[in-house]
Model the fold of this input.
Amino acid sequence: MRAARLSPDGTPDGCLIYCETRIEDILEQAATVAPDLMIVDSVQTMYTDAVESTPGSVSQIKEVAARLLRFAKESGIPVILIGHITKDGYIAGPKILEHIVDAVLQFEGENRGSYRILRSIKNRFGSTAELAVFEMTGTGLRQVENPSEMLIPMHEEGLSGTAIAAMMDGTRPLLFEVQALVSSAAYGTAQRSATGFDTRRLNMLLAVLEKRAGFRLSAKDVFLNMAGGLRVSDPACDLAVICAVLSSNFDYPIPPDVCFAAEVGLSGEIRPVAQVDRRIGEAARLGFKKIFVSSYSSMDGAPAGKIKVVKVADVPELVKALFK
Done:
């Protein structure tokens, strides 16, 4: 039924399904059919008679993966192994499984959302700094050609607590919305919550705002969310995070044509980030008029005249330039 739904003409012709878990039978059938592509779902359920252990054990997975690798190399048929992952996002089973295969691809994203990021964890014959964004639809996965347009604001202007960050994910620049909500602590103890962002780093940035810039946030709840279900680790998002927090605290909306790309240090300094010229170029291409970066950033390849680049050295200077 799923093959029929995903087929372009509505029929599952050309998609052959073989319900078997014994690897000897699978390889024999694959050699007879000689398919253009072979998908094994999942490698943890396969077993071989040559190993006396249950399916999913370390020895079974190693032997099954080795036989599939030998079959792929000898026949020239590409083989995709689908494997389980742990709650931490790592491939379940022995680590040698990653050493046997040529490439490891992983889907990321919130289960409640429709967008997925396909990321290369390992690529023996290419770069691992590439990614692709897809949308889950009723007819399968649809590639999102411009992920930045998906992640930037989808609401009316004039709302406080939002800021646009220019991050790099691999070699691709992405612009996405950072959302923050600051309110008085209702139950005495201030809450700190972050979705898609490291909570410990959020606490550090809030401490910097309180210690270095004089903002009293210790008695206020702070909630942070990365739009689109992204999990962000790029330090260049620090500046957008503190701007979204301050925007919500002041109830002062940041103009929608402004974005940010810089790291924030413990002393309140605004630190430069890598490939800032590519971030500026992506912001200019999407129509942004202004971008805040570190005053120490080198922008030799940045597009001249298309976007105004505002350089700031520390948090107090940023506040004066943005919330004047």
The chain has nine helices and 15 strands. The mean pLDDT is 86. The longest helix spans residues 58-75.
